[in-house]
Amino acid sequence: MYSQGLIGADDKPIENEAFVAAFQARIDAEEKIEPNDPMPEAYRKTLVRQIGQHAHSEIVGMLPEGNWITRAPTLRRKLALLAKVQDEGGHGLYLYSAAETLGVSREQMTEELLSGKAKYSSIFNYPTPTWADIGAIGWLVDGAAIMNQVPLCRCSFGPYARAMVRVCREESFHQRQGYELMMALAEGSPEQKEMAQDALNRWWWPSLMMFGPHDSDSTNSDQSMEWKIKRFTNDELRQKFVDATVVQAEKIGLTIPDPDLKWNPEKNDGAGGYDFGPIDWDEFWRVVKGGGPMNRDRISARKKAWDDGAWVREAANVFADKQRQRAEAAKMAAE
Ligand code: BYC
To answer: Which residue of 174, 175, 197, 319 has the fewest CB atoms within a 10 Å radius of its CB?
Structure first.
């Protein structure tokens, strides 16, 4: 873990005009900002917010899929799902570490998640009642995640950008396993195909919501774009996702549940793209504010895990203290 003593947060620069201009010039020159570099407090806070919420999403995101590990239909599927869920846990850990470089502890971030102060992705508040949900999550949720996260590999903050490189490689494998699972169901018995279509019907709109509110309602986008934390707006990424995914659905004979979906040759500066129907933003905000079908279960599962793990954290701290004391004693004996 990084010492907070090293971090710019403790040694705050005076944010006068010259400081802000010099910082923006580094961003504009595509320099990476590193944890010990001077940075505006608002830049640090934005990153702590986004990286912390991203980390929570990865960890909470293990729950809907973890639910199916014991019930996967074959050993091959079980192994793939186990590996995927484990990868998501790993992503959460890289991300918590990246946020810690900004002077916030994992304990603080977890407390904010459990108290409801910190958000996590709306998508993980939906249930996974059938095996096809595992395919839909891999295909759509990881597909949306890749669309959002590949540009984050070029984020101006070094630790976040570097963490994203590995995360995106793994998400790419996840997306393919999900799509391959959906393909197998879509090519299976009529009941299996129906199960795949039903999962697509339930996950399509929540997947579009993952990209966040429309640009006109996105409070953070303008500043995050200027700081090159975000490289594309929420609506730009959502459009790219729709354009990439519609053809994938067609290929496996599934129907996107949107009667307004229509090819528009004028879209994307004449390159063409899909028009799609209105998103239910009331549903989005209800889920973000804790009123989704699974919000309560997700937070109580995380709280239980945190409470049950208290003795492990305590033991690890005592062990680390003992090691430190031993190393100090050995150093003194040698002097
Ligand atoms: N859910 O100003 P905006 C994964 C909030 S994990 C909940 O546009 P921003 C995976 C937003 O936080 C996927 N809240 O915000 C894991 C803000 O509220 P605050 C997670 C949302 O930050 C396991 C307010 O709405 N990915 O891939 O500029 C298995 C206004 O929004 C959501 C990331 O976290 C939402 N969907 O843009 C499988 C990626 N959308 O914070 C897969 C990193 C918005 O001001 N994050 N809000 O109180 C981002 O790229 C950006 O934070 C977002 C939002 C695009 C999500």
So the answer is: 319
